[in-house]
Input
Amino acid sequence: MRSGTVVEEAASTARRPTRPGRRRGTLRGLMPHARPFLWRHRRVLLRLGAWSLMESAQTFLVGICLARALDQGFLVGQPTVGLAWLAVAAVSILLAGPVLRGVFGQLSGLVEPLRDGLVRRAVREALRRAVADPARAAGAERAAVSRLTQQTEIARDSFAGLVLTVRSFLFTAVGALVGMLTLAPELLLVVVPPMLLGLLLFLLTLAPMAAAQGRFLDADEVFTNRAGGLRGQLRDLVACGATGTAADRTGGLIDEAAASTRSLARWTAVRTLALGTAGQLPVLLLLAATPWLRDQGVTTGALMGALAYLVQSLLPALQAMMTAVGAAGSRLVVVLDRFVSAEADGTDTGEPRETESGDQGAFASPVPGTAPAVWCRGLRVSYGAGTRPLVEDFGLSVEAGERIAIVGPSGIGKSTLAHVLSGLHTPDEGSVRLAGEPIAGRSPRELARMRVLLPQEGYVFAGSVRENLAQLEPGAGDDRLSRAVSALRLGPLVDRLGGLGADVDPGALSAGERQALCLGRAYVSPAPLLILDESTCHLDPAAEAHAENVLANRPGTTLFVIAHRLSSALRADRILVLDGTGTAFGTHESLLRDSPLYRDLTGHWNASG
Ligand code: ADP
Output
């Protein structure tokens, strides 16, 4: 067994079995990390149990002493005996102080290692990210600071609260139930069923409530992202007459958020019912069953003792536990999941390596510090259930700065793959990371900073040349725009349009001119990954070659080109050949040797010039 804490186990065992877009925080997902942690701290748990047994004894004594004080003292004219029993009860109550001290002493032996482990994990993760991507070290630092301060404290407090209340309920219940059993077993017949019913109802609400909470957060996040995105697109939407469509789509998200809120409210009502059943019903039933209990020979003292057990010990402990499990429990699961997922996202290991023949589905996972620019594994992509997948068990690892061409027959899935790598199409299975960051669940704004996908149709909107070029980096100054214009040789076009400040009439531009402006926009964008999906097809071969070279040489750029000419493939460092049943990945020379489809395609391209 390795040393460390509950969260450290995550480094070796955590995988991301969930599908993209799905919320990951579940108790089941954390259990593999919790079990070894608890096992390692079993001695602390035993000592905690020992102190808690004293709490059971104390609970037991309070009810018994009260019953004896009445039955053997005050109700039979022996006040000194009654007072003596009450004195014993008082001493047992006074013992609560030292007992609680002992409990807290052990609690720190459980809670502090959890906190230390979370801090170690946050620092390790921040260092890994900073080394992998120095440019984003500041962001990694901020995330680490949040984890080191707020999130570890939330986890620590929630965990401590849970341990305290769950433990207190269990040991109080033992004391109270044994006490009632000692006083009169009939008491249990009245008290235990409603308590069990309430507890069961409460447990049944846990999973659906967590799911409803997750759905609500998902819907809220998607809606917030969409609303934020729309704000920046208003001008385009109005220009294209697409406000109605955008409103329809957003309306659906609002409905989804409302439905998940209603579902959450329904489950909250069930939980309130559970609390009432477990918390209040036993007292009511005890009072209602008094005549029957008296008939069974249950004494007044035993009845008062049972009432004391319920009202003073059991029900407060039960309510405290239910509240803690409902609130602190879900907070703890969410926060721990963030730690576990963050590290699992960064250090998954054990993936196969790329084979010599360039076979797909066999790729090394990112090594910390050297995150590939594009990495995916286990991809299965289709357009709906029952349709033939376009790729299956597909993996790819591309280093930063590489130039990749994707080739294959028309309709084989090249554009779809480009959409998957861009985060625009969610794969049925598998995951995609860009520069080590998972793309699943990212907002359009975040995606725009990670990659640019240029489609075949260059989309130029009604606005100035400047606004068109700076669309993906609105803060870009004229210097930067001019560099793009000059690098891509767009000067004559921009001059003809009237300069950077001139308004563009998209309809007056040729398809090639629109593509040229879009290439300029890609050059200006901050994204390190550029994917050209036949987005130079309306340029002549020389202009196309120049544009590809300029974009590939843009500092820090990884370039993917869906090629419609052999020349694009020849310029690439490596070529991905899609052919439906299998794929091949390698250099031009290795593919000419190993891929019959690539030989066919090059023959076809050569023949058609
Ligand atoms: P390529 O880029 O290689 O020409 P695509 O990725 O565009 O291929 O398309 C691959 C297959 O998926 C084609 O059979 C196409 O008809 C189908 N396809 C593309 N887009 C959709 C869609 N939105 N819905 C259903 N099928 C689609």
Q: What stands out?
A: Residues 374-607 form a domain with the Rossmann fold fold (CATH 3.40.50.300). The mean pLDDT is 82.
